[in-house]
Structure formats: C-alpha cells, structure tokens
Description:
Blueprint: E1 6-10, H1 11-24, E2 29-33, H2 35-39, H3 43-50, E3 56-59, H4 62-70, E4 77-79, H5 86-94, E5 98-101, H6 104-113, E6 120-123, H7 138-145, E7 154-157, H8 171-182, E8 188-190, H9 194-199, E9 207-208, E10 234-246, E11 251-252, E12 258-259, E13 264-269, E14 286-289, E15 292-296, E16 305-308, E17 320-324, H10 330-336, H11 341-346, E18 353-357
The structure holds pyridoxal-5'-phosphate.
Amino acid sequence: MARPAKARVFAGALLNNVGVARGHAPNSRLLACVKADGYGHGITSVARIIEDSVDGFAVASIEEAEAIRDSGLKKPVLLLEGPQSADELTLAAERSYIPCINEAHQLQWLESSGRSFPALWFKIDTGMHRLGFEPGQAAEVVRRLQPLAERGNLVACTHFACADEPGDNGCDRQLRRFDDAVGGLPAEQSCANSAAIMSLPASHRHWIRPGYMLYGGSPFANRSAPSLNLLSAMELSAEVISVRNVARGDAVGYGGRWVAQRDSRIATVAIGYGDGYPRHAVDGTPVFVEGERCYLAGRVSMDMITVDVTDQPATRIGSAVTLWGEQLPIDEVAHYADTIGYELLAAMPPRVSRETVT
Ligand SMILES: *Cc1c(COP(=O)(O)O)cnc(C)c1O
C-alpha cells in the first residue's frame, strides 16, 4: 500500500491567491515566484495551473527555469539570482530566460558573451545587504545593460528586508534609496514581495513578485491567511495507523517528553519529519483528526507522530488526519515549531506524493 502521507494541491486556491495579489496591485504585472519547487507544491504543476493568470515566473536556479520550459510553458522566466557561471548565461540566452544581474562579475560575463536578452533585470542593494549593486552604480549599470536588452528593456529591482513586520520597518527608507538611485533612469521597476504587495502600495511599481501568498500563507506574524482572503493551496494529510490506551503517568515517544496527565488514548499517525512535518513541533501543536482539533503528544519521529485523541473516541485505524490546510493554517503549525511556513513548504520532501485537485 502507498504511504498515506500526501499533499493535495488545490488549483482553485492558487488561482484565488493570484487574484488577491492582482487585486492589491491592479496596475502592475505579476511574476509568480515558484522557486524551491513551487514552495514545495511542485514547480511544474503550479506553473501550469497559473500560467494564464500571470505574466511570468521567477526562479532561483537555471534548473528550475529548465523545469518550466521543459514542461512546454512559454511565459517569461526570471532568474532571480542571475547566472552562476558564464556557461549558464549562454544557456539562459538560448532559452530566452531573463537574468537578474546582481553583481559586477555577472555584468562582465554578460558583456563578454555578446548575447542579447528579451529583457534584463538588475538589482540595487537598498538595505538588505545580500545582493545587488550600490545605489550610486545604477546609472552606469543601466548604460552598460541597455545595448544587451532587446528594445532596451530593463527592469530595476530591489528586495525589502522587513516588509513582513508592522509599523516603521525601514521599507520606506529602502524605497526612498531605490527612487534616488533609479528614478529618471530608462528602466521599469520592481520591489514588492508578498508582504509589500499587501501592505505597501507605494512599492507596487511595474512588476510585483508574490511568492508565499500565492500558496495561501500569510507573511505577517500578526495577520492570518484567512483574514487576508488567502486560501491554503496545500493540504498535508495522513492516516492513523494505531490507537492505544496509556495510563496516567505513562510517557509517549522518544525521550518520554509527553507524560499523560490522565488515562489517555493515543493515535499514531503515519507522518514524521521524513515527510516534512517539523521535528521541532512542541506538545500541544494542533493536529486535526477526522476534522476535530487534537494535539500532538510526544516528539515527532522520522515516520510517525503521536496525537492525544482522548476526547475523540471515534478515532480508529484509518482515521483521516490533517497536518495543515484550509482548517489549520500552516503559519499556525510553523509557530508551534518555532519556524515559518516558508521553511515548512520549502522543506517538503519528494517522498510525499503531490496530487493536484482541479
Ligand atoms: C522569494 C522572493 C520573492 C517572493 O517573496 P515572498 O515573501 O514569498 O512573497 C520576491 N523577490 C525575491 C527577490 C525573492 O527572492
């Protein structure tokens, strides 16, 4: 029998969430971020589902770009980190990918390749201090890139360090630096990730770059996905494979972390950290069994978890279990595991089967 741990991916939710992003920024074009295997949802199935609703895709590596092209999709593909070698740049030119030029050595590869591209992006470091040219270099970068882009098609971009934090979080200052650097230069502009799309209209510009929100996650610690009209695009589910009684005072699982405070019933569920369920989830992390909220009891193992179902006496072998999804936002589960939903999705292993629901 197939392992019961599986991820169902909902086409309708993905399309709804693209619509939410568009609703926030109706005058911008939309590049869907599908890096990290489509945030764990399966890059080619996500790209196929949303292709007609987006203006292009953004990926982190040439392999991801190839996965999109190899599946027959024609929309523009942006390489967010740019080429990682001169050879990669040649391949990018042959396949008409759009490199984002972030660094001087990439600009040199580009100039010595003599290749031209349908468009070229370049990044300005306005405060994230991870990638990008200094603001003062923008004019020179534009001058050097222009002859290599068809019709001089350039896009200046930057990335926010703290767009997910409320209040005066430095985005305004980054945006001012960006405007000082590229305002008046002959290039379109792109700044906004999911958080900025939903909270900073001044950042929308020509191109928005939503990622996490497309999958139904909230980038904000203090706002839930449903309150943002986002629908969970993934339901991670499994089944109960054993149910047993444990006496008050007995411990459950590795290290005996969870100790029964009353005579209890424990369901063992066929999902563990080998299936992307976070090992750091604490006792009390919500787990839905047959649609009812129950709680993790004991450490997460590689292939199994244990759940306190004392108050759900109908639980039996084969009962359906939901680890996250529409009923249980992934952001909530991530919180109990001291991480973010982004990490849970990006870490989804191939052994969990993905099934697309249209
Ligand atoms: C991943 C990424 C995004 C998308 O960020 P989300 O928070 O997932 O919306 C946008 N821009 C760049 C440069 C990225 O690397």
